[in-house]
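May I ask for a single protein's sequence together with how it folds?
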Amino acid sequence: MLAYLVRRVLYAIPILIGVNLITFALFFVVNSPDDMARMQLGVKRVTPEAIARWKAERGYDLPLFFNGEANGVATLTRTILFTKSARMFVGDFGRAEDGRDIAREIASRMGPSLAIALPTFVVGLLVSVTFALLLVFFRATYLDFAGVVLCVAMMSISGLFYIIGGQYLVSKLLKLVPISGYDGGVDAWRFLVLPVVIGVIAGIGSSTRWYRTIFLEETGRDYVRTARAKGLSELAVLFRHVLRNALIPILTGVVVVIPLLFMGSLLSESFFGIPGLGSYTIDAINAQDFAVVRAMVFIGSLLYIVGLILTDLSYTLVDPRIRFS
């Protein structure tokens, strides 16, 4: 197991380096520092002096890959590639356009993002799996057909509709919870309950249909027929056998999502005014804050790779036949 984990980590390093280089090329080759300066300065006629001053203040006046004017190691370290991209591997994300430390902002905003993402993930998973098992239990009946139709209808509705509709109905008309904002104290739940409920409802349709397909495929296998022949009830077959053997395909999608929960929800945090990583990313895109966007892309890539490794490791917990050497 340890040897397998080490190999996967070593495989992940060149992948992460490749993603970092591609991101660097998109930001600094396709979109040069001069272009960034013009967009940030926001005026029609930008003087060369203003562009040079903007680049010097932010360290964009260095060469991209190789600094021929420096000596020794500085030929590589005194470059935009090292100062803006390579240093992210050690957690140095630099500063945003407003001067704030990006790493500190990420650390402070991770809590509100998790406060929404974790309950949405856990409750949504339990509701979707339970609903899918219910449809499989009543498969080929009118209840199953109605459930599938409901799932398709819920999938067809945009998540933005759920957010706006929930804010209008629950917050504006019924006035049960605030329409937006966030409080990190005891009253935080009042600001989180509506985004969590909407997040769960918006994801039920697609998740339930996927889990239902997995469970239906398992119900046709030989071990299920054997369990029924032994006299087990349908509920016992579903929960003791079908659910357990369907955990591997479920984990494939679930474990990968867990690290990405740290990134927050772009739409929910923006519309509900939650100061999390999702709204932080949206604000950076709107403000054309390239340093923040680069940092969030790098963190997203890192967390996705971590999710893939966790997925492989979790297989051994649900299927003893899988062993890694």
Observations:
- The radius of gyration is 25 Å.
- The chain has two domains: 2-90, 102-318.
